[in-house]
Every structure is written in structure tokens, then in C-alpha cells.
Amino acid sequence: WFLLSELSFVNQSDRCLQFSCPQRSVSPFYVLLYLCVAAVVLLTVCGNLLIIISVCHFKQLHTPTNMLILSLAVSDFLVGLFVMPFHLSRMIESCWIFGISVCLFYYLISFFVTSISIYNVALIAVDRYFAISNPFLYIEKVSVSKMCIVILSMWIFLMSYNSTLLYFNGTSTGLIMCPEQCLFVLHEVCSLIDLVLVFVVPCSAIILFYALVFVIARKHATAIREINVQSKGSKSMADSMKTERKAAKVLSILVAVFLACLFPYFVCATVSNAIESQSFPNFVILLYLNSTINPMIYALFYPWFRKCIKIIFTLQIFKTVSFPVSP
């Protein structure tokens, strides 16, 4: 389904004839557009790079949940570095100016990082459900090494899947390289398979597990009130419940923002024949801008991330003694 819909308004036989690259003069507005593109790309790359450095450097942040956050930050970093510049440039120029080799790379990496982001968020939902439903069992059974194995397996599977999808779709009918356009069309069967695996399955898991998280969170709130009026020996259980509820709340905001960016494009892709095609690039960039928004969510709701930013920008990170950072 990804990017297929923005091509649906052009017939297979005359795609190259309907697209042309307009001649643009270097006006102040044109320069301003590229400055905005540079600012968005820089914000996306630097924001997610800060998350990557923070989680990798500080051992106190090496937790299973933070490994998922690290994986999401890496995928968002790749979106900002390899996908957003080409897509935003194509929106401004109304044509493709980078050649066929970059075109092939662009579609492969865009398919890959988009599916990685969706599955990362789905794994975060599953992780939060098990953490909040039984925090003590979660601590005992889920380790950083096990979570890294799961994440690595997911990356390998999705890279293999997307490479196979593009290969078996066929370059003769899939990739259409006009003099000034780079277009890729999935076959109907491939598009349906991609829709189910990349959108329906992970998004259903996200909605299901977060619905369960909210139900459990309400039960925990009642249990915490009861524990607080009992012996002090049960206070550790109340603190554990509060910690997991807080983590679930913050990550639910991240997931809600992600779904808000994802669903508009999916809806438009589904009803592509009923709406104007010009609206699709806007929804595609909304999907990509989620990679820019995520670091802002961390900065607003995670005190440890703000501490890490301060340590990094004051260059204290290069000192021998590592500064304590609470997750």
C-alpha cells in the first residue's frame, strides 16, 4: 500500500508523458523552501542522534524498553538521513533529479524504515503490556540481551521481506524511470500482502495491547490506593506499579502520535480513487514527520533525556567519570 496510491491517478501507458519538471527560477521563496527542508532534516537527524548517543552511552539506560526506543530512534534517524531529503526535494521540484540508482535506493530504504518504525511501535505496545500486567515476572524474564535478539531478528526479517517484495514485484513493471520521474508501482497481490503485514497486523497489535494496558492501569490505580493504606512493607509494590503506569502513559502518547500520523495516509491510500491525488504527498510527509516529533516527545516527558542532552551539549560526556542518569 505504501506510496502506491500516489501513483494511481496516472495510467500505466502514459505516465512519462504526463509528468514534466517545471523550469524554476532561484527566487527567495524557492531558497526559503530548501532552508525549511534543511531545518526539518537537521532536526530529525540530530534529535534522534541524541537519543541514540544517550541510550548507548549511559549504562543506566540499558533497559529492555530503552532498547526498543533505541531501535525506533535508529529507524527515525534513517528516515531523516535517507528518506526525507529526497521526498521533500521531489515535492519542491515536482520531479526526480537524482537518477535511477538513487531512485532504487530511495524506495528500498523508504519501504524498510517505514515498516521498521511500525513494528518498533508494535513491540513497544507488547512490551508495555507485559511490563504493566506483571512487573516482577517481566523483570525476571525479560533482559536486555533477549530484547536485543528480538530487535535484531525483526530488522533482519523486515530487510529480507522488503528486498524480496521489490525483487519479485519485477523491475520491468514496478520501476518506471522517466527522464524526470522515479515511480514504483506494486502489483495488486504484492500490495495486498504488504498491506496486511506492514499495516494491519502491527497496528492491530498496537491497538489491542494498549487497550489492555489502559484496563490494567485502571486496576493498578485502585490497587495502589489500597496498598498505601496498608503496611509499609508493600510500598515497594506500589512504587513498581507507579513506575510502570508512568512509563505506559508516556509511551502511549508516543503511540497515539504515531497512529495519528499513520492513519491519514492509510485512509487516503484505501480510498485513493475517491479523492484528489495531489493530497497524497502531504500525508506521506506527515508519516515521515513523525520521526521528527518523537524526540520532542522524549524531551517533554522523559527527565533522563533532558539530563542526557545537558551532559552532551556541555561536553561533560567526554569526561572519564560517567555522570549518573536515572532512567
UniProtKB/TrEMBL annotation:
The keyword DNA damage does not apply. Residues 47-298 form the G-protein coupled receptors family 1 profile domain. It is found in: Cell membrane. It is a multi-pass membrane protein. SUPFAM superfamilies: Family A G protein-coupled receptor-like. GO terms for cellular component: plasma membrane. PANTHER family: HISTAMINE RECEPTOR-RELATED G-PROTEIN COUPLED RECEPTOR, TRACE AMINE ASSOCIATED RECEPTOR 19P-RELATED. This is G-protein coupled receptors family 1 profile domain-containing protein. It comes from Electrophorus electricus.
